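[retry 2/3] Glutamine--fructose-6-phosphate aminotransferase [isomerizing]: previous attempt timed out, resubmitting with same input.
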Amino acid sequence: EKGGYDYFMLKEIAEQPKAVADTLLGRIDGSGALHLDEVRIAPSVLREVDKVVVVACGTAYHAGMIAKYAIEHWTRLPCETELASEFRYRDPILDQRTLVIAISQSGETMDTLMALRHAREQGAKVLAICNTNGSTIPRESDAVLYTHAGPEVAVASTKAFLTQLVACYLVALYLGQTRGTKWGDEIRTVVRQLSEVPGHVERVLETMEPVRALARSLAHKNTVLFLGRHVGYPVALEGALKLKELAYMHAEGFAAGELKHGPIALIEDDLPVVVVVPSPRGRSVLHEKIVSNIQEIRARGARTIVIAEEGDEAVVPYADHLIWIPAAPTLLQPLVATVPLQVFACELATARGNEVDQPRNLAKSVTVE
Ligand code: M6R
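[retry 2/3] Glutamine--fructose-6-phosphate aminotransferase [isomerizing]: success.
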């Protein structure tokens, strides 16, 4: 049942190109238009929405953080993303014009379920993004967009995360399409770029041997830090979460701009720091800033592990290890940039003799608060 792989996690990482393609399937047509008729919230209701709130836990929360950038960009609606366990104890301000998006692989996470119940009591409309047919969260929501990752067995989420991202992009574009804020060429272009993602992920997977070798060489380390900006920041958090749960290492993700506000004090000689670099063809200011962040930490002794777009020569002089990823637009980059981090964490866990599919103290679905 592991399809020849040693662990479910390895199988699920390898299934990602198909999971992404399956989640796009039937939702975009040949002309690049979106068809999300399954989201049964009336277009008139979606046009009235004045705020979006995304709630989720763990890896799904990281997908939700990325959704915020996409929703704000493509719809110009204010969007907040919040940990479900914080949201429900905060008396959040919600009404009939709030769209709440609850993201959950299992559809059974208690904190996310309680958050959506609370939101519906306040009159908000809830759209679930879920991987498990007929589970509680979609049953209790106004509408659901299923991710088609197939069953995810390993406790550490991989393919579900990538498909959650795809679903978030689709929802953001669909909201833009329905509300008329963005339509036509831009949506068609993004839809075409999304359909190229399975091929990109396939290519990333083919080039992972150096990442595995690097992971093995770091098996004795205690700490690994992760830095990112913009959508690279949630990717950094996700890379750190994978490493915590699988390798039981101290791993922390930071917004690179926060370095000077504290975390840079952690940098010491030979400390591995993974940096997620945005596309140099996107917002150039983002790219320039992160290149100077890499210089700053390297000057203080960090061992820099740089994830950058193929051909990004500007990072080469400051990278102790380079992990190239195919070119993707800035907002979509998490779909390719996350994959090496999954492989990295899985290999480190193996090298440290940990149980990959069943990390200690964790359960696949967290049905208690
Ligand atoms: O089933 P859910 O997506 O609601 O689960 C949320 C988290 O418990 C889950 O993503 C957890 O963080 C994973 N073990 C991360 O790999």
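[retry 2/3] Glutamine--fructose-6-phosphate aminotransferase [isomerizing]: The longest strand covers residues 98-104.
[retry 2/3] clearing retry counter.
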